């Protein structure tokens, strides 16, 4: 059976761990070569680095590029690395951080700016660099931006995070309007509570009383897994979504629309 992404090459930021790691592995399972762009190669959850794991699990190839998404030069190097496999087809702007968990009156300006630099600027410039390369290739392509349910509803105590993710949602729509004439589709994924280091360590929810209360309200009665997010990314990157652009795909077990 043909794979959905055979012959394509993707750059995935933040692909060493969590959702990004799952996206890179699922892309590879579907025949896509992957550039793992991250500040470190070792996964937070342990195990082999993503770029080493891919060729042992699949027939696809992978390479690692050290990439801080707050640096446009780093993003350009990551996109250039796709040339090793024939050139960029898909850009996944996944890298993100939680940042300050505090009431808005207590948020330090430097912490706020640091979060925006990663979660918003990193997406903007990742999309910009990818769009330039995709336009040069003149073969269309797909850009997938990682937002969050917090970019739809907004949540207290993570106000900067909600602001950044909401901006990613509208940025996605604006990019789609700009780039559609070149055959470049731009979409956003909005994960809910996904079981990664972000929800177990950085902003502990899973395993907490608050987290269990949220889980019990979900129609599907479970936390999401990184593979759930990865499957959504495969769809948006593939020709199955050839007429899908300027869209938000919510992967939250029903959290937003049934609250």
UniProtKB/TrEMBL annotation:
Protein keywords: Oxidoreductase
Source superkingdom: Archaea
GO function terms (MF aspect): oxidoreductase activity
InterPro entries linked: NAD(P)-bd_dom_sf, Sc_DH/Rdtase_CS, SDR_fam
Keyword flag Oxidoreductase: yes
Pfam families, per the entry: adh_short_C2
Family: Belongs to the short-chain dehydrogenases/reductases (SDR) family.
Matches recorded under NCBIfam families: PRK07231.1
Entry protein name: SDR family oxidoreductase
Lineage of producing organism: Archaea, Methanobacteriati, Methanobacteriota, Stenosarchaea group, Halobacteria
